[in-house]
Amino acid sequence: MPGLIEAATGILASSERRVATAAQNISNAATPGYKRQVAFTHLLDRAAGPDAHETRATQLSFLSDFAQGKLRDTGRPLDLALFGPGFLRLRDGESYVYARGGSFAIGADGAVIDSMGRVLQEAGGGDLMLEGPAPQSRAMAA
Description:
alpha+beta; 2 domains; three-stranded antiparallel sheet
């Protein structure tokens, strides 16, 4: 009977997580650059035994779906988005984060920064620096 209670608890927790993830996906459907979260059930290794199967079969993991989104013109020259595979590299202090696009601006020192102050990196490494006014190119966003 304890195994049945653990399995039921796991199923309820997984169901709650699925509903929360669906709500997050729906509420961010119009957010530019948002990548929906998708769930999958962990596959059990046959060597783990029958008891592990009952408890692990209900555990869910959620990953971002990095499928290409639709690009749209924003009219802002420093809004960037990638078409195809890849990521933009941003320096966040001493560490790096990756993004598929963003709304950028030119910082006081000429660095191209996002809304959180992270600096866009050049393809070969180093901060991307611009001089003068923002470029007047056609902008696309995800």
